[in-house]
Amino acid sequence: MRLRLFLLSSLVYMLTAMPAGAQCSFRNTAFKSGEFLAYNLYYNWKFVWVKAGTASMYTVQSNYKGKDAYRASLTTRGNNKVDQMFVLRDTLLCYSSLDMSPLYFRKGAREGARYTVDEVWYTYGGGKTHLRQHRINHEGKHGWYNNTMDDCTYDMMNIFLRARSFSPEGWKKGHVVKFPIADGNSVEKGQLRYRGKSTIKADDGKKYRCLELSYMEYDRDDAKYREIVRFYVTDDENHVPIRLDMFLKFGAAKAFLTNMKGVKNPITSIVE
Predict the structure, then answer these.
(1) Which residues pair with 10 in a beta bridge?
(2) Per-residue CA distances from 113 to 10, 64, 71, 141, 250 (Å)
(3) Reduced to 3 states, what is the DSSP secondary structure of residue 57?
(4) pTM for this one?
């Protein structure tokens, strides 16, 4: 009896003493350092889809504050023709530990005449996630915020890196994964919603069997979830985004894969 109580108390101690960073760890099975993905970008202008530019995503093993980490960046660049109608310049950057705990996030977004910057720094201790947040609004004003969360917390880049290693086996259409999502000045409820499978033709001329996932954030004003990005990822161990549908404040954009390099696993989702 004493042995059982000792083991139980030891287990409780280990769980409560475990740092949040360890609790938030996850095994990466989907990508490796050096993965590069390129896309054609299209923008919906007055009900017509026009070629708007390019987008690229690059993931590499790097260093963050003296420790090995993954560095991932997503960049969108509009062309001169579309710039005359609508300027689209987004640069997203994140760092995560090699076991997928978020470390840092930055988003610089120019949509139309508006430019904003969001940053989040993550630290872990006492079984909690500590956030230092920074927002530069479209007027150039700076805001600094602190939050301490009991749960693992993510941003839109770090949750995507982690989600690529999710196993969808057994998921039914409508399955939801919930998590807190942070930006430069708030922490809201976020979720990934599984929408089933579909076949998508990429701009590399190939067709891929894909899993369809929606990244959604809770809109307090409307008291409901709003879809931010819909991902079509390969139905294989890589979960490479083949197509992204982005729902912007001033319209909609789509990205179609043109090239992939340095993927971790064999591409088995190509439809002949």
Answers:
(1) none
(2) 57, 33, 29, 16, 11
(3) strand
(4) 0.85
Model pLDDT for residues 168-216, shown as the tens digit of each residue: 888 999 999 999 999 999 999 999 999 999 999 999 999 999 999 999 9
Sign, CA dihedral 111-130-222-49, equals positive
Whole-number pLDDT of residue 97: 97
What is the structure's pLDDT at 84? 58
SS3 readout for 12-30: HHHHHHCCHHHHCCCCCCC
| Ramachandran sector of residue 152 (left: φ over 0; alpha: ψ -120 to 50; beta: rest) | beta
Residues 6 or more apart whose Cβ sits within 8 Å of residue 168: 175, 194, 211
Alpha carbon distance 89, 112 (integer Å): 9
Q: Which three-class secondary structure state does DSSP give residue 221? A: coil
Nearest-angstrom CA–CA distance, 3 and 6? 5
Percent over 70 (pLDDT), the chain: 86
**C-beta separation of 216 from 230 below 8 A:** no
User: Is the CB of residue 129 less than 8 Å from the CB of residue 20?
Assistant: yes
Mean of pLDDT over the chain: 88
Q: Residue 169 in contact with residue 191, Cβ under 8 Å?
A: no
Instruction: Assess contact for 196 and 210: CB atoms under 8 A.
Output: no
